[in-house]
Amino acid sequence: MKWYPEGYEVELQLLYRHFKSSLHLFRYQSALMPFSDLSLAKDLGDLAMFHAHITPFYPDKFANFPRQMR
């Protein structure tokens, strides 16, 4: 994705939607039962790290990404 950003836009959109839904699920679960599912937290962390590395190559698509991590 870093070498050819235009060629991976469809996959990136899918991964970003997956990230946003995982973030929503994590927030919902942690409000109900804190520390209940650590595997969800690890998956969300992995997705966040991936998107943090890709953000510089897609500045228009990820302008709001840092704010979502609050």
Automatic annotation (TrEMBL):
Belongs to the SDA1 family. It comes from the Eukaryota. Keywords: Nucleus, Protein transport, Ribosome biogenesis, Transport. This is Protein SDA1. InterPro entries: Sda1. The keyword Magnesium does not apply. It is found in: Nucleus, Nucleolus. GO terms for biological process: protein transport; ribosomal large subunit biogenesis; ribosomal large subunit export from nucleus. Required for 60S pre-ribosomal subunits export to the cytoplasm. GO terms for cellular component: nucleolus. Its main location: nucleus. The keyword Transport applies.
